[in-house]
Amino acid sequence: MVRKAPSIREVARRAGVSHMTVSRVLNDSPNLRPETRARVEATIAELGYKPNTLARSLAMGRTRQIGLLIHAYSEYGPMSMLRSMYAAARDSDYVPISYMIEEGTSEELKDGLNVLLSRRADGIVLITPRVSALDFLNSTDLPEASLVISSAPSESIQNLKATRVCIDQEAGAKLAVEHLIGRGHQVIAHLAGPKDWFDAQMRLKAWEETIEAAGLPKTAPIFGNWSADSGYAAADAISQIPGISAVFAANDQMALGLIHGLINRGFRIPQDISIIGFDGQPDSEHFYPPLTTVKQDFDSLGKLGMKTLLGKLTDKQGESERPPMVKPRLIVRSSVRSLS
Question: Quick check: pTM over 0.90?
Answer without folding.
Answer: no
